[in-house]
Amino acid sequence: MQLKNVLIVVNDIERSKKFYKDIFGLEVILDNEGNVILTGGLVLQDATIWAEFIENLVIPHNNASELYFEENNIEEFAQKLDESPYDIEYVNRLMTHSWGQKVIRFYDPDGNLIEVGTP
């Protein structure tokens, strides 16, 4: 068995496609009306479709999981976030853990938690 993708729920597919392209450089591989596969294995699912499928509420900002990216030049990435047109909600701005890894955590426009760290 092999893990193929990670799916996150979003309210506005077009906004999310633009966000993940602008911030992370991810490109659309497949766009199936409410279900979009991006490079890197990230899948965007329309919240309305997802809620109908699971027959339950979608709960953003739940902090139960995060998307993790690595970036060698994290200072430049932090500056890119600060200068982006997006209203970034930070969990923590650029910080250094006791073991030396630098990380920044924030939410995407739909409340999905993201961490970017140095390798």
TrEMBL record:
SUPFAM superfamilies: Glyoxalase/Bleomycin resistance protein/Dihydroxybiphenyl dioxygenase. Residues 2-119 form the VOC domain. Transmembrane segments: none annotated. This is VOC family protein. It comes from Coprococcus aceti.
